[in-house]
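Researcher: Structure prediction, please.
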Amino acid sequence: MKTLSDPEVKKDILQRLETLQPTSSRRWGSMSAHQMLCHLCDSFRGSMGEKPLSPAPGYFARGVYKWLALYLPVRWPHGVKTRPEMDQKIGGTPPVNFESDRQDLGRLLDRFSAQPREFQWRPHPIFGLMSDADWMRWAYLHMDHHLRQFGI
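Model: Predicted structure follows.
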């Protein structure tokens, strides 16, 4: 299973990220390529405690849902609503400069995956508490999902 704790997988994600252009067309959803960069930055900031995360409503067995989303070998579905603070049209960080936002994402990814960690994980808004391995798997899947959203 791919995870950002694997240096080769991380390198591949970063190379894919470099091919993203401000004019890249989405295959689904409503975010622009630039908004997607900011969404990913906000997601990393939230997991590291630098941006507030609101828990998703409802009660579903978080552990079961987490396992299905992270470890079942299927791609994530399209159209799942994000938390308002991660939505660039509501409370997310607005895009400023494409290249500087892409560089911010690279720096956040490096901090997120660095050992030892300089931060404490925050509970995921849907999955709750997660291990280092869970977070590394989630980060890969989240980035892969949105890069595929733009055909990358």
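Model: Residues 7-149 form a domain with the Four Helix Bundle (Hemerythrin (Met), subunit A) fold (CATH 1.20.120).
Researcher: Thanks, that helps.
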